[in-house]
Amino acid sequence: MASIGQIIFWSMIVLIFVCAGLIILLLAIAFSASQGTVETSAPFPVGNLREDVVLECKFLTKSGTDRSSDVFITWEKEGLTGLVYQYRNNAAQLQDQNTQFKDRAQLFTDAIAGGNASLLLRSVKMTDDGVYYCNVGAPGVWGRVRIDLRVSVYSAPTITKSNSGLRAEAPRWQATPNVTWVDQNGKQLNSSTQFNSSSTGIVQVVSNLPGPLTAAEIYTCFIENFLIKSVSEVTGEGDLKNSYFVTSSSQKMLPLPLFGTTPLLLYMLAW
Ligand SMILES: *[C@@H]1O[C@H](CO)[C@@H](O)[C@H](O)[C@H]1NC(C)=O
Ligand SMILES: *[C@@H]1O[C@H](CO)[C@@H](O)[C@H](O)[C@H]1NC(C)=O
Ligand SMILES: *[C@@H]1O[C@H](CO)[C@@H](O)[C@H](O)[C@H]1NC(C)=O
Ligand SMILES: *[C@@H]1O[C@H](CO)[C@@H](O)[C@H](O)[C@H]1NC(C)=O
User: Fold this and answer.
1) Report field, pTM of the whole predicted structure over 0.90
2) What is the pLDDT along the chain (271 residues), one digit of tens a residue?
3) Which atom of ligand 3 sits closest to the CA of residue 196?
4) Rounded to the nearest 5°, which phi and psi values hold at 27?
5) Is-contact 77 130, C-beta < 8 A?
6) Nearest to 88 by CA among 75, 73, 107, 103
7) Which of 45, 157, 232, 247 is the most exposed place for a label (fewest CB within 10 A)?
8) Which residue has its alpha carbon closest to ligand 3 atom 1?
9) Ligand nearest the Cα atom of residue 228
10) Does residue 180 have its Cβ closer than 6 Å to ligand 3?
């Protein structure tokens, strides 16, 4: 039979383990609660040549009240010497900026305190294509997110009634796109498409869907290259109902690599 002493001894041991476990648990909770996150809603944006593009990056802090003076944001591009953009002490710090991004990159300064670290890149060039990293350091948050920017040339078509059919005209596409028309049951329809290419490799697309069509039915015109797809829904009468772009399904969802810890450590030291 166990003596009172032994019972007390073992009870103490159990108690110590339980307390240690609880402390570890509390520390883990406190630690994770103090860690904010850096994330993007659009990891695979497709920029349109000579237009502006926003590389989305936001950070969430658990503490809430953040002054932008405590926020440190660095945008990097893989393989690039220097930086794309840096923000620190409430101001742009562009002494290390690569000249390729001079006067073309900026943040939404008024929105930084609210967790917006997105980069606005003006007049996109083909050479902007590549992998970008948004690094954020702020009270209770530090991390980075990867964004793969692809650059293409695309435009929504103007659709008009032509004889008894429809005619779609899109002024600029790159890499001769596929054009398909479907009826509202998703059945593919016969159509004929011409591509008028300019010396710069940009093509004008003109596609005809012959009639007769049903006035009240919705027809959808898809214009698609390897990166992006334009979707236009129009009635048999040529009234546009909806028009939007989606990034092509042919674009593979790459698994995000684990945190690059080395730059982060350097970055924390610098901060
Ligand atoms: C940041 O603000 C800009 C301008 O208002 C907006 O276009 C962008 O979507 C915002 N991004 C995030 C992540 O909130
Ligand atoms: C579509 O074109 C194919 C071949 O060009 C032809 O065989 C078929 O009958 C056409 N379909 C319609 C609905 O016109
Ligand atoms: C092809 O493009 C040129 C230059 O943009 C234009 O003048 C011409 O009318 C176009 N041709 C067709 C068939 O659309
Ligand atoms: C166009 O369609 C063909 C046949 O379905 C396909 O092989 C090709 O990759 C497509 N091209 C583009 C740019 O999507």
Assistant:
1) no
2) 667 788 888 888 888 888 688 877 777 665 555 568 999 999 999 999 999 999 999 998 766 655 667 899 999 999 999 999 999 999 999 999 999 999 999 999 999 989 999 999 999 999 999 999 999 998 888 899 999 999 999 999 999 999 899 999 999 999 899 999 999 999 999 999 999 998 888 999 999 999 899 999 999 999 999 999 999 999 999 999 999 999 875 444 444 443 444 444 444 445 4
3) 1
4) -60, -45
5) yes
6) 73
7) 247
8) 196
9) 4
10) no
Task: Give 171-210 as a 3 state SS string.
Answer: EEEECCCEEEEECCCCCEECCEEEEEECCCCEEEEEEEEC
3 state DSSP class of 267: helix
Alpha carbon 128 to chain centroid distance? 15
204 lines ligand 3 (CB under 6 A): yes
Q: CA–CA separation, 188 vs 244, rounded Å? A: 19
Shortest-distance atom of ligand 3 to CA 206? 14
Q: Which domains does the chain have, with CATH numbers?
A: 37-152 (2.60.40.10), 158-247 (2.60.40.10)
> Of the residues 153, 178, 227, which should be mutated to test ligand 4's pocket, given the most ligand atoms within 8 Å of the CB?
178
Is the CB–ligand 1 distance for residue 54 below 6 Å? yes
Q: What is the DSSP letter of 101?
A: G
**Beta-ladder partners of 178:** 224
Take residue 95 and report the two structure tokens written for it.
Answer: 């002494």
Ligand 4 neighbours (beta carbon < 6 A): 175, 177-178, 224-226
Q: How far is the CA of 115 from the centre of ligand 1 (A)?
A: 9
